[in-house]
Write a structure and sequence with these properties.
Layout: E1 2-11, E2 14-24, E3 29-33, H1 40-47, E4 55-60, E5 63-64, H2 71-75, E6 78-81, H3 93-100, H4 104-107, H5 110-120, H6 137-149, E7 155-159, H7 167-182, E8 186-190, H8 194-200, E9 203-208, E10 211-217, H9 218-222, H10 225-231
Parallel strand pairs: 3-8, 3-9, 6-7, 7-8
Antiparallel strand pairs: 1-2, 1-4, 4-5, 9-10
Length: 235
C-alpha cells in the first residue's frame, strides 16, 4: 500500500531525513518511535504532502506522491491527524467534521461517515454544536481523528495522538486507534508513548537523527533490552 524509498527531506541546508525506507501493508498498523527531534513529525508530514521531498519516492497504491500537489494526497486516500490537533476552534464540532468530508467522494458518504465516528466516539454526540475550542484536550483529539476519518481514508497518519492527554484518556484513544485499524484502515502512527504504540502495532521503526536505526516486529521491540533501556526506562 505505502512504500517509501530512499526519502530525503531538508529544511534549507539542514537535512532532516536521510534515505528513509519504510512500508505499510494494506490493513497494517505500523508505528515510528524515537527521541525528540529525530525527524518523526517531518516524516509523517512528508507522507501527508505537507513537506516536499528532496529525493526519493512515496508510492501509495501504485502512485508516486512525492511530487504530487499537497491537496491531492487526500484524494488518493491519505489523511493526517496532526500534532496538537489544529482544529478550527471557533467553528462547531459538526462543522469541523464536515470539513473533513470536503472532497467529492467523501461528501457523498457524509451521513454514513458521521454515524461511524459518533459510534467510535460517543462523547462527541453531545458536543456537535459546541465550539471545538471549548472542548477538553481528549475531546478535541476525538474530533481531530474523526475529522480525518470523515475523508474516508485508506491510510490514517497519526502524529503524537497522546500528546498532552491524561493517562486514562490515552488508553481510550489507543483502543479507538486499534478499532479503526481493525475496520480495515491502514495506520502509520508516530508516538512518544513507546509502550502503548508497540503494544498495538504490528511492526515498528526506530528513527534516530533522521535515519532508520532499527525495524522489526513490534512485539520483538517491546521485549528488546535496547528499546527498554532507551525508551521505556527499564534497566
Amino acid at each position: 500500500m505505502l512504500e517509501i524509498k530512499s526519502l530525503q527531506v531538508s529544511y534549507g541546508p539542514a537535512v532532516a531525513l536521510w534515505d528513509i525506507d519504510l512500508h505499510v501493508d494494506t490493513g497494517e498498523l505500523v508505528c515510528v518511535i524515537g527521541p525528540n527531534a529525530a525527524g518523526k513529525t517531518t516524516l509523517i508530514n512528508t507522507v501527508a504532502g505537507l513537506n516536499r521531498a528532496d529525493k526519493g519516492k512515496i508510492i501509495f497504491n501504485g502512485h508516486d506522491l512525492a511530487h504530487t500537489e499537497p491537496h491531492l494526497f487526500c484524494v488518493h486516500g491519505v489523511a493526517l491527524v496532526p500534532e496538537s490537533r489544529r482544529l478550527f476552534a471557533n467553528m462547531s464540532v459538526l462543522e469541523n467534521l464536515e470539513l473533513g468530508s470536503f472532497i467529492s467522494q467523501a461528501k457523498a458518504h457524509r451521513t454514513q461517515s458521521l454515524e461511524y465516528v459518533l459510534e467510535l466516539f460517543p462523547a462527541m454526540k453531545q458536543k456537535l454544536n459546541s465550539p471545538a475550542g471549548s472542548l477538553s484536550g481528549g475531546q478535541q483529539q476525538m474530533v481531530a481523528i474523526s475529522r480525518a476519518l470523515m475523508a474516508r481514508p485508506k491510510i490514517l497518519l497519526l502524529d503524537e495522538p497522546s500528546l498532552g492527554l491524561a493517562p486514562s484518556i490515552v488508553l481510550d484513544m489507543f483502543k479507538a486507534i486499534k478499532q479503526i485499524n481493525e475496520s480495515g484502515i491502514s495506520v502509520l502512527l508516530v508516538e512518544q508513548n513507546v509502550s502503548l504504540a508497540l503494544d498495538i502495532a504490528k511492526r515498528a521503526y526506530v528513527l534516530e537523527e533522521g535515519r532508520i536505526a532499527q525495524e522489526g516486529l513490534a512485539k520483538d521491540m517491546l521485549n528488546s533490552t535496547t528499546i527498554q533501556k532507551a525508551y521505556l526506562g527499564i534497566s
